[in-house]
Specification:
Strand order of the largest sheet: 3-4-5-6-2-1-7
Strand content: 15-25%
Structural class: alpha/beta
């Protein structure tokens, strides 16, 4: 492999510190032409920062900064690697990088440093994906899971599955290939036990997918209600700033407004929708249709009701429309929370959600809030946290967090189940072995042991340059 270099931090705008990363077989000799210290670069003490002068391609000093070298194979990439830490001037970083290119390095591609770590056996694919998950983490829980997965949490959970299937396959082939040796045949009950163990482990792993998606992508949440119910005020209060326009005029929100917020430790992808009502206004009608679509696509619904509207004959049309909406939300099949707004205007009172028709999908919680005073928001956080609690697997970094992982684990489990069905149907172990080996290949694809080149390329294309 050739030597690669890239700006790993800073470069797009002035910053306090900028970082340039270099890796490859000629790393130390190239770095010695760009960094001048008391000793030649290759003789600097490993893994210790050294102060020196950073040079441009003409050998002129452009900054004073720090350099550190990481001899392979005990480095991030498994190759000789180095980093320069200098002042975060984009000009300084570009000139230093240009000097490295002039010395013989080339520009690293997206994710190429981590890809080399994978190819050199420093990381498996689940750990490599954890790197990008850690960079993209938007909550502390997501960061903790990614860090634990980077430490091998998911790989360790898959190892017993691989070992069980490998043991069966290797013993079977030993019996076939060396018939004269005294090797005990693979017994059907032994094969069944190994397959059931693998199926149980894969099922437990696939059960983490929902929590993994919540950690990584958040929960798509639709805020719905009649016009002027307080939906946009709720969004603004959760976001901490005026994200949506709020007026006392019904129909102010005519399009969906989106914002990500942390509520009860859960990342909510909030979608503030137009008030649901019949209207002849063409623009508002389009907004109402988008609101209904947002409710269909949501994973959580926050139904906001105007707590200041009194139960009286004059407000009969309002309550009829609200009863209709209440039943639409209830029959959506989605988890939902009923929120009565404007409790700062109404004061303490009994909460009633009215009559839900048909098969009741009761709300996870009913609560009163004030977007002005903040009253009731602690109860809302508790309700959201209860709907999406952390699992035990989260602590060990063994959640499946993306579709690739889920698909590979699903194929592995399907193959194991086919093998079990064949075994129970009376087929000989060698016939069953085909499905067992397919399961082993799928698990290997998950970790990178048997991953095809296009899968590897797709994974690392998601990375930024310099990582």
């Amino acid at each position: 492999m050739d030597t690669i270099a890239a700006i790993a931090a800073g470069g797009s705008a002035p910053s306090a510190i900028g970082v340039i990363r270099v890796s490859g077989p000629d790393c130390f000799s190239l770095c010695g032409r760009v960094f001048r210290a008391s000793r030649p670069f290759g003789e600097l003490e490993a893994r210790r920062m050294v102060l020196g002068e950073i040079l441009d391609k003409e050998g002129r000093v452009i900054d004073r900064g720090l350099a550190v070298r990481f001899p392979g194979p005990h480095s991030y990439t498994g190759e000789d690697s180095a980093e320069f830490h200098c002042h975060g001037s984009p000009v300084v970083l570009r000139e230093a990088l240009a000097a490295l290119f002039a010395a013989g390095a080339r520009q690293a591609g997206p994710g190429e440093f981590t890809k080399r770590a994978f190819l050199n056996g420093r990381l498996d694919l689940t750990q490599a994906e954890a790197v990008i998950d850690l960079i993209d983490a938007e909550t502390a829980a997501a960061a903790r899971n990614a860090a634990a997965q980077l430490d091998g949490g998911l790989r360790r959970r898959l190892e017993p599955v691989q070992e069980a299937l490998l043991e069966v396959a290797s013993r079977f082939y030993a019996v076939v290939d060396y018939p004269d040796e005294d090797i005990e045949d693979v017994k059907p009950e032994e094969l069944s036990s190994a397959l059931r163990k693998a199926e149980g482990a894969l099922t437990a792993l696939l059960n983490t997918c929902k929590r993994g998606r919540v950690l990584k992508r958040g929960v798509r949440t639709a805020i719905v209600g009649l016009p002027n119910a307080g939906k946009s005020s709720l969004l603004n209060a959760l976001a901490g700033y005026d994200r949506a326009i709020v007026t006392g005029i019904p129909g102010t929100t005519r399009d969906t407004v989106e914002e990500s917020v942390l509520c009860g430790g859960v990342l909510l992808r909030l979608v503030d929708t137009a008030g649901l009502r019949e209207t002849e206004d063409a623009v508002e009608k389009l907004g109402v249709e988008r609101s209904r679509k947002a409710m269909e696509e949501a994973e959580l619904i926050l139904l906001v009701r105007d707590g200041s509207v009194k139960m009286c004959p004059e407000n009969g049309a309002h309550w009829e429309a609200e009863a209709l909406l209440l039943n639409q939300v209830s029959q959506s099949g989605k988890p939902w929370i009923c929120i009565e707004s404007k409790c700062d205007l109404t004061g303490p009172h009994a909460f009633s959600i009215g009559v839900i028709k048909g098969d009741a999908n009761n709300p996870a919680a009913c609560l009163c809030v004030s977007s002005v005073t903040g009253q009731g928001f602690d109860k809302l956080e508790e309700a959201v946290a209860a709907l999406f609690p952390p699992g035990a697997a989260e602590e060990g970094g063994s959640l499946l967090t993306d579709q690739r992982q889920e698909e590979a684990a699903s194929r592995a489990r399907a193959a194991v189940r086919r093998a079990l069905e064949a075994l129970e149907g009376g087929l000989t172990p060698d016939a069953v072995l085909t499905d067992a080996e397919e399961a082993l290949d799928a698990v290997g694809e998950l970790t990178g042991r048997t991953a095809r080149e296009e899968i590897v390329e797709r994974i690392f294309s998601r990375f930024c340059v310099g990582k």
